[in-house]
UniProtKB/TrEMBL annotation:
Residues 542-576 form a coiled coil. It comes from the Eukaryota. It is found in: Golgi outpost; Membrane. It is a single-pass type I membrane protein. Residues 1-25 form the signal peptide. This is Golgi apparatus protein 1. The gene is glg1a. Residues 36-69 are annotated as: Disordered.
Length: 1071
């Protein structure tokens, strides 16, 4: 740190030396010299008495002293005008050293009054100090070809020596070495001229006009004119010669703070109080440097110690000075030379060069030398702009408009201004220039936690306790500044059980910093350091705010181990507190305010806010940016179960016990879900997965069903199908999955298998059917509040035809019914009810099917035919009856009919098929047009429908509607099923005493004709079919009478004709 300040100190020394006016020759006239200098000494100057032409005459002591000063043995202590003050104020051992006496009296006059004559003598002595031959001898070597032959021109010797001192400190090419004794003397002269700018002859003559222009009303003395000129150094009207002289003096101040009279005076007591005093025997030692003073006193301020307001004001001025002019820091001049020449030339004024170097340091303009980077970091610590943004003039000017609009509620100069600016980064209120300057500064503040004064104030106790930190300006190799914040945030999110947590105030500040750092990956030192290679490899084109971190998360599996670890830790942290994602929070503000404000207001976020955003991802307040951000976070979570805070917390022990060595969240969910399902099916006494984990597992399963990308295996299997069949369908809301379901017959084999397995799971557990639950959410609340989750679809099917049923929900229920009827495996209730009947009656179909193929409704068609034969078990019969009733109303629920009759329906029944509400019109149309059907497969399906309708009138909705009154009057006592009510109506039709409704009579007669035709074109396939045809035939009584007469005739003939065989005797039987 001291190295960063060496150049400014040297520059200040050079300025001070140039202020000393050399006096020529041993024969110079003292009176004349005094008269010349008197013209430059302002009346009313501080301390010294004004000099005038008669001064020597009125004050013989003073006048006589001047000639003796040039003699080799002359001593200030021998002067009568100062003897009393010297005896009273200065130790006797210093009397033989004129500079020691001068320094003693100069220091003491701030505390006590010194005689006016003595003051006058001291002022003249300082003015003529550089007549010492040793200055001239050094100048001859150091300043060859630089100064004129008249080596005693106004201040030129001292100015040249000062510049030589600066060149040596900056290690400039051609710099001439100066001996330490000479350096010490030059610096002491500069210090002695620090109170009155008239004493710096070179600067005085260089800045006379500028002083009149900028500082006309500023009184000389106590360094006031210096400070005024420093403040105007970069004004356009400032002359270049004056600016150069001021810069040299500032460099000297940087090397030794005592060269600034005002700073040394204001901070004298504080320096002593906090043990920051310089060693007087080592004027260029570390303790004398401006950097050490600033760091020492800033450390006291940050520790809550009291530093006088006057001293803090002076420190503020010099911190601003360091930020304005990079050349005041010799380390930056030395180590950043190539960066300045290559990227930052011509930007010297108002801190622009320094910010340019910061931009290079960020990596925005190529690589930077490590030494230059360290020099910049050191300078930022010395200037400490984090404590007051006004110290950074470039930032102050760039962000003034933003501060006035976005941060006007914060007191001017408050450290929270920088935090406020960060909160408005990438918002409409931010301007581009401010954004650049802010990120450039924050890049370096982020690399040392101490440079954020609010964080340091709230967390210094926690840092000392948990991270073993030292004082504000002390560093440790074991725990460098950049590692402290990492230590703090690791403790910020510890649970009570884990112990060693941060205090509440410190945690709030850590969260604030995390929120701000999430805006730019370069604000996270550890992340940038470990991921530099991966950022270049995978994310070079991601230049928008927040995109780099998202890119790293997307390529998590591809990252090198160090980078993957830090990205994983940060993502895990985000899962607990998603508010760290500041850009996402801004994008989602409308949704948060409307739906999640209660969760967002909680001080401690444990994943609730993200859960709320996921739950409301499809609300009208959700904008595209927020939806994309939320989905991205969901996609990242599937890479590792640790990235889902609630799931990790609820299931960590279960994962370690049941699913060890599994990392991906999807695989963990599948593992745990399979365990739960197996325990349930096997009726295990105790579930192996804990209750809290099962509850969270359900949440994760439902969330994964919302977007196909959240199920990587399914997504990878169906990528090509999505591209070909669902290209214009948006992800989310399970829309892509629904699209694939609707185009199931066109899917590739691999995708088809995955979709079928997904449907199988959804039918067993309808709560995982995202589209069904979303579309029918309100209907489920209305009709199925008391139903278990697994029975939701069954409940909806039962209430499908209610007048209160929402049309969209009804349409969705129909879709699911169509899906269930394509394969008995997709209907868990039917599968359970018919588990014995299916292998008994439909085994040939099962034998032909492959494990991965769907049965396209063949098994259900087989069971329908057996239902007509009345051969099914009671439970299976009940389920098939329901399917028959449903498919009789809507032909789409009969997959085999759809497969074989699609063309015939389009040709014969287009109007009926186009009807919005299906009430059996298409089936009736096909029955009526049976003779016109050309395709044998379709004709067979229609004949099967006719056969099924004989078994139960409910299977024929058109006939049932037409005959509803007649059934009520004629067949009320007859239970439905097994063709009983149909037989009752047939008997009523033949009974001339019974008068049926005309429509019922007509429909019954049509059915008889259809059955007669069906019997001709589709003869019985076996005895059972023949018996069924006889029992359901309109001529049943006639047929049965004929059959009975035949059997009776055979019996009579047997009685009359006797035995056909020979009788066997008893004897033969007894043998």
């Amino acid at each position: 740190m001291a190295d960063c300040i060496r150049v400014p100190l040297l520059l200040l020394l050079m300025c001070i030396l140039s202020s000393v006016h050399p006096i020529r020759g041993e024969n110079a006239n003292p009176a004349k010299s005094l008269k010349a200098e008197n013209l430059q000494n302002p009346a009313g100057g501080p301390g010294p008495v004004a000099v005038n032409p008669g001064a020597a005459e009125r004050n013989p002591g003073a006048g006589a002293s001047l000639p003796r000063r040039r003699s080799a043995g002359w001593k200030l202590a021998e002067e009568a005008v100062c003897r009393e003050d010297l005896t009273r104020l200065c130790p006797k051992h210093s009397w033989n050293n004129n500079l020691a006496v001068l320094e003693c009296l100069q220091d003491k006059k701030e505390e006590t009054e010194i005689a006016a004559e003595c003051n006058h003598l001291l002022w003249n002595y300082k003015l003529n100090l550089t007549t010492d031959p040793k200055f001239e001898s050094v100048a001859v070597e150091v300043c060859k070809g630089t100064i004129s032959e008249d080596i005693h021109s106004q201040g030129e010797v001292i100015a040249c020596l000062e510049k030589g001192l600066v060149r040596e400190a900056e290690e400039q090419p051609g710099a001439h070495p100066i001996k330490d004794d000479c350096k010490k003397s030059i610096m002491r002269v500069a210090e002695l001229s620090s109170d009155d700018f008239h004493l710096d002859r070179y600067l005085y003559f260089a800045c006379r006009e500028d002083r009149e222009r900028f500082c006309e009303n500023t009184l000389a003395g106590e360094g006031r004119v210096y400070k005024c000129l420093f403040n105007h150094k970069f004004e356009d009207a400032m002359s270049e010669r004056c600016r150069e002289a001021l810069t040299t003096r500032q460099k000297l101040i940087a090397q030794d703070y005592k060269v600034s009279y005002s700073l040394a005076k204001a901070c004298k007591s504080d320096l002593r109080k906090y043990r920051c005093s310089a060693d007087s025997n080592m004027p260029r030692a570390r303790e004398a440097r401006l950097s050490y003073l600033l760091l020492c006193l800033e450390s006291a301020v940050h520790r809550g110690r009291v530093v006088s307001g006057e001293c803090q004001g002076e420190m503020m001025d010099y911190r601003r000075m360091l930020m304005e002019d990079f050349s005041l820091s010799p380390e930056i001049v030395l180590h950043c030379r190539s960066e300045i020449e290559g990227h930052c030339s011509g930007l010297h004024r108002k801190g622009r060069t320094l910010h340019c170097l910061m931009r290079v340091g960020r990596g925005d303009m190529g690589a930077i030398d490590p030494n230059c980077q360290r020099a910049l970091q050191t300078l930022i610590q010395e200037a400490d702009p984090g404590a007051d943004y006004r110290i950074d003039r470039a930032l102050n000017e760039a962000c003034e408009s933003v501060i006035q609009t976005a941060c006007k509620h914060i007191r001017n100069g408050d450290p929270m201004i920088l935090s406020c600016l960060m909160e408005h980064l990438y918002t409409e209120k931010m301007v581009e220039d401010c954004e650049h300057r802010l990120l450039e500064l924050q890049y370096f503040i982020a690399r040392d936690w101490k440079l954020d004064p609010i964080l340091y104030k709230k967390c210094q106790g926690d840092a000392a306790r948990l991270c073993h930190t030292h004082g504000w300006n002390e560093t440790s190799e074991m725990m460098p500044p950049g590692a402290i914040f990492s230590c703090l945030y690791r403790h910020a999110y510890r649970s009570v059980e884990q112990g060693r947590r941060l205090s509440r105030d410190c945690k709030v500040e850590v969260q604030r910093i995390l929120h701000q750092r999430a805006l730019d990956v370069k604000l996270d030192p550890e992340l940038q350091r470990r991921c530099m290679t991966d950022l270049g490899k995978w994310c070079s084109e991601k230049t928008e705010a927040g995109q780099e971190l998202e890119c790293l998360q997307d390529h998590l599996e591809d990252l090198v181990s160090d980078c993957r670890e830090v990205v994983g830790n940060l993502t895990e942290l985000e899962s607990e507190d998603i508010q760290i994602e500041a850009l996402l929070m801004r994008a989602c503000e409308p949704v948060i305010q409307t739906h999640c404000h209660e969760v967002a207001d909680n001080q401690i976020d444990t994943g609730d806010l993200m859960d709320c955003l996921v739950l409301n991802k499809h609300q009208k307040e959700m904008n595209e940016k927020c939806a994309v951000g939320v989905t991205h976070f969901q996609l990242i979570q599937i890479k590792d179960f640790r990235f889902s805070y609630k799931f990790k917390t609820a299931c960590k022990e279960d994962v370690l016990k049941l699913c060890p060595n599994i990392k991906k969240k999807v695989d963990v969910v599948i593992c745990l879900s399979t365990t739960v399902r197996n325990d349930t099916l096997q009726d295990a006494k105790e579930q192996r997965v804990s209750v809290k984990c099962r509850k969270q597992l359900r949440v994760e399963e439902v969330e994964m069903s919302e977007d196909i990308r959240l199920e990587p295996e399914l997504y990878d299997s169906c990528k090509q199908d999505i591209k070909g069949l669902c290209q214009n369908v948006a992800f989310g809301n399970a829309q892509v999955i629904e699209c694939l379901k609707e185009n199931k017959r066109q899917l590739t084999q691999r995708c088809h298998q995955r979709i079928f397995k997904l449907q199988e799971v959804e039918m067993v557990d309808p709560e995982l059917d995202y589209q069904l639950m979303r579309v029918c959410k309100h209907m489920i609340r209305r009709f199925c509040t008391e139903s278990e989750g697994k029975n939701v679809l069954q409940c909806l099917k039962q209430n499908k035809n209610s007048e209160l049923m929402d049309p969209k929900c009804k349409q969705m229920i129909t879709k699911r019914q169509i899906t269930q009827n394509t394969d008995y495996r997709l209907n868990p209730v039917l599968r359970k009810a018919c588990k014995a009947d299916i292998p008994k009656f439909c085994q040939p179909i099962l034998n032909k099917a492959t494990p991965d193929s769907e049965l396209e409704g063949q098994v259900i068609s087989c069971l329908k035919l057996k239902y007509a034969d009345q051969r099914l078990s009671p439970d299976c019969e009940d389920q098939i009856r329901v399917i028959l009733q449903e498919s009789a109303l809507d032909y789409r629920l009969d997959p085999q009919l759809q497969i074989h009759c699609t063309q015939e329906i389009s040709r014969l029944c287009p109007e009926e098929a186009a009807a919005q509400e299906q009430t059996g019109q298409v089936e009736e149309c096909l029955k009526v047009n049976l003779l016109k059907i050309k395709q044998e497969g379709c004709k067979k399906e229609v004949l099967n429908m006719l056969k099924e309708s004989k078994a139960d009138i409910f299977v024929d909705p058109v006939l049932h509607t037409a005959c509803a009154l007649d059934i009520k009057h004629q067949c009320a006592a007859i239970p439905p099923g097994k063709g009983r009510q149909m037989s009752c109506l047939m008997e009523a039709l033949q009974d001339k005493r019974v008068r049926l409704q005309p429509e019922c009579k007509k429909r019954l007669q049509d059915r008889i004709d259809m059955w007669s035709y069906a019997a001709k074109v589709a003869p019985a396939e076996g005895f059972s079919d023949l018996a069924m045809q006889v029992m359901t035939s309109p001529s049943k009584n006639y047929i049965l009478t004929v059959i009975g007469a035949g059997v009776g005739l055979l019996f009579v003939m047997g009685l009359l004709c006797g035995r056909f065989t020979k009788r066997v005797t008893q004897e033969l039987k007894d043998r």
